[in-house]
């Protein structure tokens, strides 16, 4: 019994670094402003995304990409894959964040997308 317990504990200690999450890009942590882009989501979903970011309060939403620290893009629903959201720096193509939410295909998916981002940015 003691040997089995020791083996389980040793395995968890060895596996812990593998289970660690990837670091959050510094740009997501330091950004103050965002510009939202709609690439095929319905207007209601796009409005929900803006509301979810406003409720969080971490980033100021701008009405022009000029001066935005980050560009947040939501795309059209991709059946069996979900709603895609990506975050980049203005003028760059490197993805700083990407997520797809399958839950709530017709119900406020924006809350789920922002909730996942918030958990990682805030280290929860």
Describe this structure in words.
With 124 residues, the protein is an alpha/beta fold. It has a single domain (22-121), classed as 3-Layer(aba) Sandwich (Rossmann fold), CATH 3.40.50.11830. It has helices spanning 2-19, 26-30, 43-56, 109-121, and strands at 33-39, 60-62, 70-75, 83-88, 97-101. A five-stranded mixed beta sheet has the order 2-1-3-4-5, covered by helices on one side. Helix 3 runs parallel beside helix 4. It is globular.
Question: Brief description of this entry?
Answer:
This protein has 124 residues and is of the alpha/beta class. It is built from four helices and five strands; from the N terminus they run ααβαββββα.
Please write out the topology:
Blueprint: H1 2-19, H2 26-30, E1 33-39, H3 43-56, E2 60-62, E3 70-75, E4 83-88, E5 97-101, H4 109-121
Parallel strand pairs: 1-2, 1-3
Antiparallel strand pairs: 3-4, 4-5
Helix pairs in contact: 3-4
Order of helices and strands: HHEHEEEEH
Widest β-sheet, arrangement of strands: 2-1-3-4-5
Low-pLDDT runs: none
What is the average per-residue confidence, as pLDDT, rounded to a whole number? Answer: 84
What is the 3D form? globular
Top CATH class: Alpha Beta
Number of distinct helices: 4
Range of strand content: 15-25%
Helix amount, in percent?
Answer: 40-55%
User: In the CATH hierarchy, what is the architecture at level 2?
Assistant: 3-Layer(aba) Sandwich
Q: Main β-sheet: number of strands, strand sense, barrel status?
A: 5 strands, mixed
Radius of gyration: 18 Å
Question: Could you tell me the number of beta strands?
Answer: 5
Count of domains: 1
How far apart, in Å, are the first and last alpha carbons?
A: 34 Å
- Counting helices, strands and paired strands, the structural category is alpha/beta
CATH topology tier name: Rossmann fold
């Amino acid at each position: 019994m003691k040997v089995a317990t020791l083996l389980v504990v040793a395995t968890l200690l060895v596996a812990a670094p593998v289970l660690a999450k990837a670091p959050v890009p510094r740009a997501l942590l330091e950004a103050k402003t965002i510009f939202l882009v709609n690439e095929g989501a319905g207007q209601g979903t796009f409005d929900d995304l803006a509301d979810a970011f406003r409720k969080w309060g971490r980033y100021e939403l701008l009405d022009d990409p000029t001066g935005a620290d980050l560009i947040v893009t939501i795309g059209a629903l991709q059946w069996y894959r979900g709603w895609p959201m990506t975050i980049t720096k203005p003028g760059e193509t490197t993805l700083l964040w990407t997520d797809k939410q399958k839950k709530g295909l017709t119900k406020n998916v924006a809350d789920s997308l922002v909730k996942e981002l918030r958990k990682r940015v805030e280290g929860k």
